Amino acid sequence: MVDQQTKEKYAELALRTGVNLQKGQALLISAPIETADFTRIVVRKAYEMGAKNVHVNWSDDELTLLKFTHASDEVLGNFPEWQVKLQESFAEDGAALLSISSTNPDLLQDVDPERVALANRAAGMALTNFRKYVMNDKITWSIISIPTGDWAQKIFPDKSRDEAIESLWEEIIKIVRVDQEDPIAAWEKHNHTLHRAETILNERKYTKLILKAPGTNLEVGLPEGHIWRGGSTNSEKGITFNPNMPTEEVFCVPHKYEVNGTIASTKPLNYGGSLIDEFSLTFKDGKVVDFKAAQGENVLKHLLDADEGARRLGEIALVPDESPVSQSGLIFYNTLFDENASCHFALGKAYPTNLTGGSAMSNEELDAHGVNDSIIHVDFMVGSDQLDIDGITPDGTVEAVFRGGTWALNIEE
To answer: Where do transmembrane segments lie in this chain (predicted)?
Structure first.
């Protein structure tokens, strides 16, 4: 049983290690209404830590579904200006952003994908400026999850709603290291391991990675000046924070024009309340030129057609198969967790911080360096215990990076 004290420890971890809330700093929380009890714990602790203002931007799956079912296309295609100003005003004030990601994976499965794509495109365009604060680490931000009923029952379909929620709580608490005596110290140790992995990869300066697995044979170019990153990072003001909890990845930026071959997914992708599963993408000169999916192919098409950059890659991330998320043996139908069980890519916008000097570059300069731009950034999972990855060094040497889904490089001290 996950008791109140454990939930309090989790809330404190999210504030101290996740967003690293500072005294006198504002906090904007995005949370489903179903997580109200836990969210109130976070709010109370934030004020106890000296937050000057805490605002919760609530969402409700049932209201979201009603809107997509009954609202006109005109409404769905118009992202409210007040919502843009709300988020931008907190970002401009240097607030910390905490998102609790716990949506029902099947929420919009019966909604016309064109209507979902319309709303996603409108939100993506309206929040372009806000997204710069996040993707350039101008402010501190973090994403966590707690169980909600529909999500928990998707993972544990043979259990009652209450039993499923409790089972998911237990898995999350273990995966984010809250079950340890000192979770904050445990995260410091974990971040040290991820930073060692990124240091080793940055020293290698690979020009290309080659991925091979069942259904996968892909070459991914890496731009000159690329930077591998993982674990905690620093904001523009020098505040250390963890963007994702859990996180098991080290990630980099692919060259938007130098991706060739085919990649096959290994886990379902929950995109906008609809599942895309058993899909593959074929790239030529960085662009998706062919695709197929056993489930959600029409949803995948709309994702790829979001804009010009949606058919190109913005991220490659390496995650060993022995990660705690993978070892749970569960499919979470939630990208925050599933991407930390598996090597993955992201379609769409790249993080400028993955390129030397990238945060200060214009969109034109980033493009010249091979860094992709888009209104979307959607991670999808490609890793398994059958994935091999080779790295090509600047002198043409081929090195084993991953074998059988885990590190072939020595990242242990």
So the answer is: none
Which residue is associated with the tokens 């919502």? 83
For 278-328, how does the pLDDT look when each residue is reduced to its tens digit (9 = 90+)? 999 999 999 999 999 999 999 999 999 999 999 999 999 999 999 999 999
Q: How far apart are CA 226 and CA 379, in angstroms?
A: 19
Q: Which tokens is 400 given?
A: 């084993």
Is this structure's pTM higher than 0.90? yes
Distances in Å between the Cα of 268 and the Cα atoms of 87, 93, 110, 338, 383 are: 30, 37, 17, 9, 12
Q: pLDDT of 254-279, one tens digit each?
A: 999 999 999 999 999 999 788 999 99
Of the two residues 344 and 1, the one the predictor is more confident about is 344
